[in-house]
Every structure is written in structure tokens, then in C-alpha cells.
Amino acid sequence: MSSRCECIATSTGLRCKRPKSRQYPNQPYCGLHCVVAVLVQTRQARQAPSPKPAPAPVPAPAPSTSVPRPEPKPSLAALKPKKVPAVEQKPAPVRKPEPAAEERKEVTLSVLTLNVRTYETCHEEKTCDVINQDLDTLKPDVLAVQEDWFDSPVDQFPGYTLKAKCQAERQGARYLANSIYVRDDHDLAGLASDPDTLDITGGCRSIRGLVPRCAALLTVKGVRIANLHACGGQFDDPEFRHMAALKTKEKHVELVAQKKPDLIVGDFNAENDRGAAERGLRDYRLYQRLTDKDKALFLDFFLGHVEPLKRLGFLPAYDSRAEGTSAYRTTVDWMYYKPSALEPVGEPLVVETIAKKYTDHNGVMVTFRVVRP
Q1: Residue 2 has what pLDDT?
Q2: How far apart, in Å, do the first and last CA atoms of the chain sit?
Q3: Region 54-60: what's the mean pLDDT?
Q4: Domains in the chain, start-ordered, CATH in brackets?
Q5: Cβ contacts of 294 within 8 Å, gap of 6 or more
Q6: Residue 36 CB neighbour total at 10 angstroms
Q7: Backbone Cα Rg of the chain
Q8: C-alpha closest to that of 181 among 131, 230, 231
Q9: What angle do CA 78, 83, 86 make, to 5 degrees?
């Protein structure tokens, strides 16, 4: 009988079995090496992962014999969009105007123009008291005078300071001037600048010969002002044919335009339109004695400044007045302004000086709103 061990698989594992010994017929015997082998096999069997059971097959559904029911249509209520809760909106903040805009004040400039005829008014035997009384009442910012004395004292108009003047024609042993005075006021202090002069003679002459004409210029409150005395009048008009050919008054305006003023004031010795000119010249002896041809030529000279001013963009600050501004009942004293810089405020004020036998012109005062300070 073989003495080797046999490993027998049982329901409880591997067992070692050997044939019965003769000495111990009832006792099975296994060698040590067989026992070790059995223990290793038993451990390996326990550590091996057990196989996962296969999933049970799912039975296929039996074919249905019933008729499918149609899906219900959504109701109108279901189609309505759902209300989204409104988001509370805060009002936009109100922007306050800039302090500079709130504090900005309207800038105005009042100007009085007057042919003062100084050789018959403000001289040794007759003072300027009449016009000074009007100035004390009206208080214009700027006083523009024609036929002032070129060498006149700067304080002849109390409360006003001479800032610009130009030398014009001779009167006896002295010269006349066109002058610009500025009111002595703390608001105007330092606001008058850049005085200048311009020769605008342009061939102007009278029965006595060549007549120098000029313009004085000054900037006040940012407004450039030109004060002139244009060719014409009782001494110059007899030479109208010569000056009409030279277009003297047109040259006046073109020369002044070179200085780029915002306001041109003074004695233009002319009306502003043909109808007013014809009405105003009815009582002018020189005009009434002319032929129809010469009357037309005289009007061309008389109104020579109108079209050039229109072309340059200037507008008259007022219309012709029925009573005129001169002793000849014609409106010859004017203010022409640039709309881009100035805007007249209210009606012009006529300063009655003819009735007071002070001069042969009435003064005209206009207040402007400064559009471009």
C-alpha cells in the first residue's frame, strides 16, 4: 500500500488522507508536508473573489392591444407667460446744474452815441453841462462822441474817462476827434482795453479840400467797438459826384471791417434805406435842386455804407425815426451790431439835445445783451 498523502476535497475543505497504518489501523495519518500544502490551498481558495451573479433577465413587455389616447392640448392659461415679479427701479439721480451756470450773470452793455459838435458846445464860453446832466441820469457804460476836441481835457465829462480817440478834420486852429469814454465804475474797471485808431478818409473831401476821417476803437466787456464820423454833411455833400465815383462810404465800412469790430457806432451822415432817405431829403435844399439823374447819384453816395454792412453781417440796432436824429430831420446817427456778439435789449432811447439847442444831433442810447462775453 502506498504511503503518500492524498488531498481529498470534502464539503468542509481539503482533507489529507493516507492509507491506514498497520500499527494504527483506525487512525488516518498525514505527513507534515501534506498538512502545509492543504493549508496553502485552503487560504488561496478563501482569498479568491467570488463571481458576481449574472443579472436576471428582464421580461419584454407584452404587446398592448389598447388604442393609444391622444395627449391633452395645453390650455390658454398655460400658454400665457408667467408674470415675472417687477424689479424695483430706483429713480435716476437728478443732475444739478453746475455752479458756474447758476452763478453766471447776464452781461449787458449800454452805449450812447452823440455828435457833440464841441466847437459850439464845450468850449471856453459854453460848458458841457447839458450833456453831463443827461449822462448823470442815464449812466451809459460807453459814451461815443463825434466832433470832440482832439486836445480836450480827459475829464470834461465827469464820471467818465477817455479811453480812445482819433484825430479827424481841422476846425480852425484845432483838430476834431472821435472819442470813446467809459463810465468810472468798479464793474467796468479793467474791462476797457486795446485802444486803436484807423484812417478811413478814402477820398472824402469838401469844398475846402480833403477832409480827414477816422475811427476810434476800444474793447469793453469783450465787445470791440468802433466809433466813426463818415464822410458827408453840409460841407461835404456838394462834392457827392466825386465821392460817389470813389465809393467813399463803402471804403469807410471796408476799412473798419479790417479791425473786426462787433459794434460800429457814430454819425454816418446817411439814412439806412432808400425810402427813408427820400423822405428825409425833401427839405434838404441841395438835394431838391438836383436833376433826377443827379438825385439818383446822390442817393448812391448817401446810402453807400448800407450794402457793405449787410454783406459783412451787420444789422441796425433800430429803424429810421420819423423825427430823425439830426436838425435836418434825417436819421443819420446809427449803431450796427454783429448778431453773433450782441443782441439789443428793449427800445432805443433818444436823448433830446436839439430841442435844448445844445447840438444839431440828438443822442441815441441802446442797451445790448452780450452774447459772446
Answers
A1: 47
A2: 141
A3: 56
A4: 6-46 (no CATH), 107-370 (3.60.10.10)
A5: 241
A6: 10
A7: 58
A8: 131
A9: 175
Q: Is the pLDDT assigned to residue 329 strictly greater than 90?
A: no
| Residue 185: count of CB within 10 angstroms of its CB | 12
Q: How confident is the model at residue 123 (pLDDT cuts 50, 70, 90)?
A: low
Higher-pLDDT residue of 252 and 100 is: 252
Backbone angles phi, psi at 45, to 5 degrees: -65, -35
Highest averaged pLDDT of the listed ranges 59-68, 246-255, 306-315: 306-315
- pLDDT band per the 50, 70, 90 thresholds, residue 27: very low
**What pLDDT is stored for residue 24 in this prediction?**
45
Cα separation, 62 vs 51, whole angstroms:
33
Looking at residue 7, its pLDDT comes to 58
Distance CA 204, CA 213 (A): 7
Q: What is the pLDDT of residue 283?
A: 85
290 to 110, 232, 294, 296, 305: CA distances (angstroms): 40, 17, 6, 9, 22
- Please give the Cα distance from 165 to 246 (Å, whole number): 26
- Say if residues 254 and 266 touch (Cβ distance below 8 Å): no
